[in-house]
Write a structure and sequence with these properties.
Distance between the termini: 118 Å
Shape: flat
Strand content: 25-35%
Order of helices and strands: HEEEEHEEEEEEEHEH
Radius of gyration: 31 Å
Number of helices: 4
Number of strands: 12
């Protein structure tokens, strides 16, 4: 009898352990999918945290080929308080959790005083500060997913001039015929 009770307790504990471990990753995946990915569609529409922002007017032209936003646009879109020290060329970004410090044209930054290697540098050009768009994902600890919707569009080969000419003749033929009938009737008046 005792052996059966211990066997049932063992089975129940294994079942509860299995159920608990299978629920935990599913919950973690569901929680991270809501804010865990930042999507950029065709380099113009940013979708993140339940918001969509058209970035075309916010991009700043820089000497590099990267995607950069102006400081005000960056801080408004991603919810940072920004402080630019012009004399030391240092940018400080703060949110509720962390303080980030960047020096212009340097790929080294700091997060809460600890070193933070960067893929791109904050730029100070033509008297204004440009922040890489990738920092939005980096500083919020989410993945930036580039989605190019134009890849899904199949471009049809351009037909030759004969095909254009034939199509024009097909459409314009009845028009020319009606116009010549109109001219004949108008000349009788």
């Amino acid at each position: 009898m005792r052996k059966r009770i211990w066997t049932w307790l063992l089975v129940v504990s294994l079942l509860l352990t299995g159920i608990g471990s299978s629920i935990q990753p599913a919950y973690a995946a569901a929680a991270s999918s809501t804010v865990g990915t930042m999507k950029l569609y065709d380099y113009s529409l940013l979708e993140w945290n339940g918001k969509r922002v058209f970035l075309g007017r916010h991009y700043v032209e820089t000497s590099t080929d990267g995607l950069y936003l102006g400081l005000k646009s960056f801080s408004d879109i991603f919810g940072f308080q920004a402080d630019w020290n012009k004399s030391s060329k240092t940018l400080t970004l703060k949110n509720q959790e962390h303080t980030f410090v960047f020096t212009a044209n340097s790929k080294q930054g700091k997060v809460d005083g600890a070193a933070l290697p960067l893929p791109e540098a904050v730029l100070f050009e033509k008297g204004s500060v440009a922040v890489p768009l990738s920092y939005g994902a980096l500083l919020n600890d989410v993945k930036l997913d580039l989605v190019n919707q134009l890849d899904k569009v199949h471009v049809v080969a351009i037909p030759n001039e004969d095909a254009y000419s034939n199509a024009y003749d097909k459409v314009s033929g009845p028009y020319h015929q009606m116009y010549s009938t109109y001219e004949k009737d108008a000349s009788c008046i």
